[in-house]
Structure formats: C-alpha cells, structure tokens
Amino acid sequence: MEGEAGSAGISVELPPMVSDAAVIPPPRPPSGRLPVADLDGYRALYEASLKDPAAYWAKVASELEWMSGWPPDPVFTGNLADGFRYFPGATGNVSVNCIDRHARRHPDRLAVRWLGEDGATRSWTYAELLEQTARFAQALSDLGVRRGEVVAIFLPNLLETFAAVHACFRIGAIYNIIFSGFSAQALADRIVDTGARVVVTADETFRRGRPISLKATLDSVLGQLPSVEHVVVVRRSGNPQVPMTAKRDVFWDELLARTATRADPVPVEANEPGFVIYTSGTSAKPKGLVHSGLGFLTGAYHNVKLSLDLGPEDVYWCTADVGWLTFPIFELVGATACGASMLACEGALDFPEPDRFYRVVAEHGVTKVFTAPTLLRMLARNGEQWAQRHDLSTLQLVSLVGEPLDAKTWHWVQDHVGHGRLEINNTYGQSETGSAWTSSIVGVTPAKPGSCGLPLPGHAYAILADGAADPDTGGDDGAAAAGQPVSTGAAGQPVSTGAAGQPVPTGAVGHLVLTAPFPTLFRGIWREPERYQTQYFSAFGPGCYASADAALEDPDGHIWVVGRVDGVINVAAHRLSTMEMESALLSLPGVAEAAVIGVDDPTKGQVPVGFVTLAAGADGSLDEAELSEQLVQAIGPIARPKRVYLLSTMPRTRSGKIVRRLLRDLVVEGDARGDVTGLEDPEVLAQLRRELQSSDPTAG
Q1: What b/e readout covers 20-31, taking b as 16+ CB neighbours within 10 angstroms?
Q2: Contact predicate 355/375, CB 8 Å
Q3: Which positions ≥6 away from 90 have C-beta within 8 Å?
Q4: Which helix (H) or strand (E) holds 610?
Q5: pLDDT for 23-39, tens place per residue?
Q6: Superfamily of domain 2-91+288-563
Q7: 147, 255, 148: which is closest to 201 by C-alpha?
Q8: Tell me: the pLDDT tens digits for 526-554?
Q9: In this predicted structure, what is the pLDDT of residue 698?
Q10: Cα 22–chain centre separation
Q11: Domain ranges, ordered by start, for the chain
Q12: At CA 436, angle to CA 505 and CA 166, rounded to 5?
C-alpha cells in the first residue's frame, strides 16, 4: 500500500495505545452485498484500485443511473492542485439516484421517519419523498431559481430538509446548508458570500425543550442580505406569532399547494458544483468548500456501502445534524442512494433523559447507527444503568467519525451496549474529503479499538515528515505552524524520519496527506481559487493534499489519526501526541472525557495542560495529582502536565467535537477569543470560565 512506505531500517517503538490494541474480527460474516469477502480480498482490491483508480471509480459509478455520456472516455482528467474531473461529459442527476429509482422499485418503502424532541413523529415513503421533492423543485423554478444558482437552506433535521436538498439537485441548483445553530451574523456571512436569492428555513425548532426561532434569526439580518428575494418557511412548531412578510415569505405547505406540476430532473454534468458547505478556520473567514454533485454522490454511495452495508432489512440512523457534512454523506445522499430506511431526529440525544438514544434504538428497532465518539463517551459517562433499561438487541453496527476514539470507550460500548455482538467501526474523513476514506469494511476487515481502520479502495495517501502546513487548513481546530516536525516515538522520544516531505517509518507520527484525487474530494473554495491552492497544496507541493492532521500507520496497515498537527506539542524538544495523553487519562476508571492542549512555558517551550470530566458516580474519586501521575506513568516524566482541570463539561460543536482551542483560550486568555457560533451550547463557556477560575485564581 502507498501508505505503508517508510524509512528502511528505522525501528520505532509504538505508543501503548497502538501496541496494546487487539485485532478484533467482525462479529458477523459479510452480507454478500459487498465486492470483497475477506481481508485478502480487500488487500487485492485496494492494490488494484491504486494501480488504476479511474477504472475502479468507473466501476463504482456504473452501479448508479446516468443520463448520457456513459461510459465516459476518458474516465479521469487533470490533477490534484490544478483541478481534476471524474467522468467528464457524463450527465446524470443526484435526486434520480437517491429517490426516483427507489420510488420506481419500492414506492412504499419507508424513506425517512422523523422524530421530534417533543415526541412528534412523521414519516415519508420513497414515493412521498419523490412527490415532495419534485413539487418543491418546480416551486423553486417558479420562484426564478436557475441552474448554477445557490439556494440557502437554514433548516434543522426535518423531512422537508431531504426534499429541499434534492429539489436543488433536481434542477441543477447549488445548495448551501447552514447549520441551524449558527448566530444571525454567521448566517448572514454565508448568504452574502453565496448571493442566494431563496432561503429555506423553519418557523422554529426545539433543543433541550426550548424553542429556537430560526425565522426570527433570519429576519434579524435580512436587511444585510440584498440578494434574498424569497423566504420559504417550514411549519415545525406552527407558532402563529412567527412574522411573515407578504410577497417575500411563504409557508412550504402553501407554496406546494399552489404548485400543480412536478419538475423533471435535469441532466447535470458529473463535475458541476452540487453544493457549498462552509468549514471554519481559526485564523481566517470560513471557507466555502465546493463539492461536485455527481462526484459526491459516487463517493458517498461507495462510502455508505462499504462502511455500513445497508440492506432492506435495516433501520438506519445517522445522529448528526444536517449542518455537519456527515449527515449528507451518511444519510441525505449516501444512504438514500442505497435505498435505506432512515431515522432523522431533532434535538439533543440526552434530553429529556440521558437514555433518549437507547429509547430510540429500542422503540424503532434500529440496526445500524452512524454517530460521533463524543456520543459514546456521553453514554459511558452517564453509566450502564440507562442502557440496561432498554432492549438493544436489534443493534448490530455503530460507525463513527469526528474525533479519535479511545479504546476505553470502545470496550465500554461493546460490553454495556452491544454485549459482545456489536461491530464498532471508527472511521476518518474531513469536510474537504467528502467521505470517511479510512474505515472498516463491514463484516470483512478487522477493527482495532482506537484506530481509524484501513484505507478504503480508491484512496491513495502517505504519512510524511515535517512540512509547512497552513494554520487554517482543514476544519475547526487549526493546524501546526509552518515547518514544525511532528514525528515522535514512544514516551515522546524523537525519531529520525529522513528529509522533509519523505514518508515516515511505520509507527511514527507524521503529516497525513492524500496523493491522488477521488470523486468526493472537494473541487475548490467558493470564489477563492488562490486560497484553495495556498492552503491545501503549499506544504508538500501540488501532488499532495495536506490534511493538517497528524497520523501514524501501524504494522498491520491500520491508520491512527492522532489529532490536528497542532495537537502534537513540543516539550523540551520532545514531540508529544495529545491523543496519546488523552488516551492515557481516559484509561483511568471514572474518567469520562479528556482533552489535552499545549501552553507556552519559558523553560520547556511548551507543557501539557489537561481537562477531564468524570463519569456518573465518580465525583471525588480522582484528584489532580492522580491524573498527573497517570500521564507520567503512561508516557514518561516529560509528559507531566502543568495542570489537569476537573470540569463539569466540555465545549463541543453540535457535531460532537471537543473544541480544544476554546479550552486553550480560557486558560491562556481568560476568555474565548475565537468563533463560538458552532457550539452545541455557547452558554457553557461562562460556566467553564467560572470553574477554571475557582480551581486556579490565575486563570482568567
């Protein structure tokens, strides 16, 4: 494999989190729906896909429906940095592949069942989803939306969200989903950037029992949005006090009632933009990542097929918010392309009680879940007694993405939720990659608790030494300063990895890069082509997409993404992985969550600072001295932290990621300095500030 290359003759001692990880075979045999049946078959397919990636992706895409130009010749043109095209000249339509073809074959199959936080439920079959989608597509056309124009979708997880997105695909419009928890200004910034003339929103939604007024949030900034001509409002709460402006605002149901016809799907070329999704950096304005519609469809279908293996017998639930790209990959597009029967949930998964997740699984017979490691840590923190109240015997698979998964949580979920019968698939991807490209293949490849599995076929990568990763590359948590090496051995001992830009030895930490295009990889940054070049292709040259993530590959070929490049800190010239330190803290009984950052130190350059939350019933059973000693025992004296703070909670995004840069801000600056609009609960920052100040009067 390309990722297995390393410096010959250099031996690297694996960190304990890697060396102690057992190889765990799938608990069930493969279904027969997948292109491989065992590990040897996977290896052969992966090698073949790297030798001829165009042929591999053409085979995947041939399982979908195309309108013209199929098969394309050539299948692929271009390169990473200058632009690439898969299936050039071929036309098709995403909505046809996700909805029409299933509605033709199985019109009465459940497509989506929506679950409101207040107990409300609604469902659409594939026939009903097609009806709503095609009519709303016609309504958008009647409102003047044309091919290549942007429609802003400011919606939570609703049935109408599926129809709104696929209506855009149907007429060749570009959609931009804006996270429903964003502030008014964050919403305005994105609409200004895309110039959307139509915004689709809801009157209100509910989160932890409180109404959130989406329409009012939009109204508060419409004066800043001269491009907006029409606002379509879904009635979620039905609050009659929601203001509506004549000629501009219209309710979804009233708009469809006056739309008599259904829009036919238009042929869209495979590389035309399908959507824009914004990802925040820490040092610059949010980036509008541009994904092609049919390229994204091809890769999302492939990703869901291998990482979830959904069949007609499955009830499937992706717990993410639609504003996080995981939901379009693993439900909105990828799972519908597979004809899945899906759940979509509103609100928090631990409200009104900590067992809401278990209750949904038991009541609806959920067989497969896609979620974030943070949810699993939340379940573990609340204790196994909540799981014991429910029959979870239908649950077969939990797939994950978002943050590194620690082995302790992996085993807790297997023991207390799965009772030894779960397949737990920890995957890795980015908004830019448009798919989780490292993953187990369900029923085929083994897992290692904490690893991200093996690279999926069609994805070429390398792990390189040193580099000049841009500090605003690749998502919410930033990246390393230019030119900082990240390789480390056990206990933080530096290892020799050769020249900058060369592959590191097996087991050493380096910069994770992608070395060849694949269909779901994003195609640029909206209206900023120069930024695309400098942020992603300057660190290691035009042939490498720099992820700004640090990773290692173990001797079995499993990839371990250990965090952001800036999550590898320099303590007295020793490079320490924050993921390794977090894993050590999490291994202590009673620790539910852990985060580690580096702060400046006049003597050592940097020193670690840790943060933990405790599991239910563990309050008072651990103190700072014991937590600090755990890091020393697990990694070495060089890892002794300056402080370990015990907190009641962590700052998280709605997608479940712990925002470590905000913890750093609170400790170093005394307040949160960066963007907080994506937090699950922005009010938690004041609470954390008080807790930090009470435990350390010098903090803040």
Answers
A1: ebeebebbeebe
A2: no
A3: 66, 68, 69, 70, 71, 72, 269, 270, 294
A4: strand 605-614
A5: 999 999 999 999 999 99
A6: ANL, N-terminal domain (3.40.50.12780)
A7: 255
A8: 999 999 999 999 999 999 999 999 999 99
A9: 53
A10: 26
A11: 2-91+288-563, 94-106+126-266, 588-695
A12: 160
CA 643, 646, 649, 655 dihedral sign is positive
CA 226 to chain centre: 32
Is 94-106+126-266 in the same CATH topology as 2-91+288-563? Answer: yes
Domain 588-695 fold is: GMP Synthetase; Chain A, domain 3 (3.30.300)
Burial label, 240 (beta-carbon count in 10 A; 0-12, 13-18, 19+): exposed
Q: Is residue 469 a contact partner of residue 539, using CB atoms and an 8 Å limit? A: yes
Task: Tell me the HSE value of 679 on the side-chain side, using a 13 A CA sphere.
Answer: 21
Are the beta carbons of 567 and 560 closer than 8 angstroms?
Answer: no
**Which phi and psi angles does 468 have, rounded to 5°?**
-130, 60
In three-state secondary structure terms, 536 is helix
Non-local (6+) Cβ contacts of 280 within 8 A are 286, 287, 475, 476, 675, 678
**320 contact partners, CB below 8 Å, separation of at least 6:** 326, 327, 330, 331, 370, 371, 372, 655
SS3 411: helix
CB under 8 Å to 247, separation ≥6 — which residues?
Answer: none
What is 94-106+126-266's CATH topology? Rossmann fold (3.40.50)
Listing DSSP states for 282-345 in one string gives SSSSPEEEEEEHHHHHHHHHHHHHHHH---TT-EEEE-S-TTSTHHIIIIIIHHHHTT-EEEEE
SS3 357: helix
Tokens of 158: 């609703």
| 620 CA to centre of own chain | 34
Q: Is 309 left (phi over 0), alpha (psi -120 to 50) or beta?
A: left
Is 197 in contact with 144 (CB distance < 8 Å)? yes
Q: Which residues of the chain fall short of a pLDDT of 70?
A: 1-11, 280-284, 467-500, 566-567, 572-575, 619-620, 654-655, 674-675, 677, 696-700
Closest CA to 386 of 415, 412, 357, 348: 357
Cα–Cα distance, 12 to 496 (Å, whole number): 9
Q: Mean pLDDT for the chain?
A: 89
Distance CA 397, CA 506 (A): 30
To the nearest 10°, report the CA torsion of 309, 312, 313, 314.
50
Helix, strand or coil, per DSSP, at residue 522:
coil
Kind of pairing between the strands at 230-234 and 198-202? parallel
- Locus of tokens 């964050």: 186
Which residues are registered as beta bridge partners of 164?
none
Residues in the chain: 700
Please check whether residue 335 is in contact with residue 308, taking contact to mean a CB–CB distance below 8 angstroms.
yes
CB 330 within 8 A of CB 406: no
Q: Which tokens sit at 178?
A: 């804006």
Q: Enumerate the H helices of 403-539 as residue ranges.
A: 407-413, 529-536
The burial class, CB within 10 Å (0-12 / 13-18 / 19+), for 129 is buried
For tokens 């590898």, the residue is 568
Q: Which residues, in sequence order, are bridge partners of residue 685? A: none
